[in-house]
Amino acid sequence: MAMPKNMITKPMKRPSDLIGVINGKIPSELLVPIGKRGSFMHHTAARGWRCLMWHLTPQLARLGADDWDLASVDPRTFQRQWEIYDGRTYPGSGRYLPESMWAAHEAKGGTWGKRDNGSIEVDLWQSPGRPTIERWRRMAGNAMAAIPGTSPHGLALAVDLALDDDEDAIADPITEAVVRFLMENDLALNCGFAWSTPSEPWHLQWFMGDIIPEFVLAWERLMGEHPPLPPTDPQIPTNPLPKSGLELIGMYTISVRYGPGHAKYRITAKEVIHEVNGDAANIDKDAGVNELEVGWEGLVALLASRRSVGNPFRINGEPRTDGWFDANLDRHWEAARNNPA
Ligand SMILES: [Zn+2]
Q1: Ligand 1: distance of its center to the CA of 159 in Å?
Q2: 10 Å Cβ neighbour count for 63?
Q3: Span 187-230, pLDDT tens digits
Q4: CA-CA distance, 91 to 111, in Å (whole number)?
Q5: Residue 286: CB partners within 8 Å, gap ≥ 6?
């Protein structure tokens, strides 16, 4: 299988709410779930990812696979990066060897991994538990790995795309046909993802920082899709929400703001349908805009209270132009149901 060599490579770019965040230690409120391996991605990159996978998935049968998958769990912790890099406990059981072990490796006929430009790859890194900074080389036959603490996988901005092309639960390698599809018409690039090196066609990383590509925005508008929300806190508080005199039944709109901090969610009741004898009636658009600044827990509590009222939860509204979005809360309604207070 000949993988293409002309993929566009671009450096990963951090969204502003990841600046200052320690690699491998992403606050969970910045992450949303993707894929099937318990993987999470930064919420901004996840918007591009959803768009990219939406385009890829219907083509997979034609390209010879059942579904897409991921080769590992993201974000990668520092411990996991360390394990991959040098084996963590036993240097030599990972992909890279310290200088003191180079001669032994060569004596066994071992050779070294090279960079794309042909030079032997040498890193400087002090492995935890080892006394000094050492030079490290990658053993040939292993994929490159970032020096622990520097991997794009530790910032939830990169994934190693794999496939699911049989019955078992093990991820199968990405194929040339799929890589070419991602390159066609700049599909991956248009979704905000590029490669980091042609030698790793499976590795895609977010290069747009805070910017959502126009291609993704257009897709979201077309699909009525909304940005994914951070995962629901499983602890549903029992305190009722303040209702400010507004009867929170029927249909209303919840707007969720994404931005640095992520502490506040605004709930705006724009339309209230009063129930009359069990039927929705009397749509009152002037029922009052009820803006509540609540934390994520408050949002979950609201959904839990909706369940207790017994009304189906519905969403109303369009993506906005002012930086707020009407959230897709179906999933979170389900989450509230699955985690009764
Ligand atoms: Zn990777």
Answers
A1: 6
A2: 16
A3: 999 999 999 988 899 999 999 999 999 999 998 888 876 666 54
A4: 17
A5: none
> Does the domain spanning 16-75+151-223 belong to CATH 3.30.1380?
yes
For residue 202, report the distance from its CA to the centre of ligand 1, in Å: 7
What 8-state DSSP symbol labels residue 112?
B
Count of all residues that appear for the chain in the document: 341
CA of 203 to the centre of ligand 1 (A): 4
Calculate how far, in angstroms, residue 153's C-alpha sits from the geometric centre of ligand 1: 7
Distance from Cα 318 to the centre of ligand 1, integer Å = 35
Cα angle: 330, vertex 335, 341; to 5 degrees = 130
Tell me how far the alpha carbon of residue 158 lies from the centroid of ligand 1, in angstroms.
6
Tokens 């207790």 belong to residue: 308
pLDDT (mean) for 161-173: 85
Residue 104 φ then ψ, to 5°: -65, -40
**Burial of 234 by CB count in 10 Å (0-12 exposed, 13-18 middle, 19+ buried)?**
exposed
CB atoms within 10 A of CB 168: 8
Least confidently predicted of 5-14, 88-97, 222-231, 261-270: 261-270
Per-domain boundaries in the chain: 16-75+151-223, 78-138, 253-338
Say which residue the tokens 């935890």 belong to.
128
